[in-house]
Design brief:
The chain is of the alpha+beta class and 164 residues long. The protein is built from two helices and eight strands, in the order ααββββββββ. 33% of the residues lie in helices and 35% in strands.
């Protein structure tokens, strides 16, 4: 889903609109030189922000995949994991409480991929959190934190989970 724009990129595109509107038009109705330059600069900034956001998401996704693939003898356990409601921390990163219920007959750990999305389901960020040494029949908790500041309405969903 690297093709989706992040809120930062959308904001930069809106800056283009504001820059063009603020610079105004000449009497002939065509954009003035200042407006064209402002629009070009804002467009370049929007493209740069979109590229950086896409790169950050691709990197986070690759790192999450690598962490999960590195777990030996893991058992799929997505149905044993629940997430709380995401909330921003003091740095603006999204945090969410992760609860894993161990249905095995011995202590296990869990690796949980948490996908942070916007209200439309577009992927904003990905992280993996470990819930360690959960006793048989018990639940353990951890907190997942996004890799970067997320704005707007953020949701969290379990991408995958392994019990090992």
């Amino acid at each position: 889903m690297a093709g989706h724009w992040t809120r930062g990129a959308v904001g930069a595109v809106l800056a283009v609109v504001v820059a063009v509107g603020a610079a105004g038009c000449s009497d002939s109705g065509s954009p003035s030189g200042g407006a064209s330059k402002a629009a070009s600069a804002a467009s370049s900034a929007a493209a740069s922000l979109a590229s950086k956001a896409s790169d950050a998401l691709a990197s986070a996704s690759a790192e999450a995949k690598q962490k999960l693939e590195g777990i030996k003898n893991g058992v799929k356990a997505k149905d044993d994991v629940t997430l709380g409601a995401p909330a921003p921390d003091s740095a603006g990163k999204a945090t969410v409480k992760v609860t894993a219920k161990n249905t095995a007959d011995s202590a296990k750990s869990f690796a949980v991929q948490v996908n942070f999305t916007d209200k439309s389901g577009n992927l904003l960020d990905v992280t993996v959190v470990t819930v360690k040494d959960v006793a048989a029949g018990a639940s353990g908790e951890a907190t997942a934190t996004s890799n970067r500041k997320l704005t707007g309405e953020v949701h969290a969903v379990v991408g995958s989970a392994l019990r090992y």
